[in-house]
Amino acid sequence: MDVLSDVLRAVRLTGAIYFDIDAGYPWVGESPAAGVIANAVMPEAEHVISFHAVMSGACWAALGDGSLPPLRMNAGDVVVFPAGDPNVLSSSRGKRSKPNLAMYYRPADRNLPFKLIHGGSGKERTRFVCGYLGCDARPFNPLLAALPSMLCVRKPADSSVWVTDLFRLALEESGSRRAGSETILAKLSELMFVEIVRSYIETLPNNSRGWLSGLRDPHIGEALRLIHARPAEDWTLERIARETGLSRSTFIARFTHYVDVSPMHYLAQWRLQLAARLIERPGSSIGEAAIAVGYESEAAFNRAFKKHLGVPPGAWRKGRATPVDAKPLPLA
Question: How many beta carbons lie within 10 A of that of residue 58, not counting itself?
Answer without folding.
Answer: 14
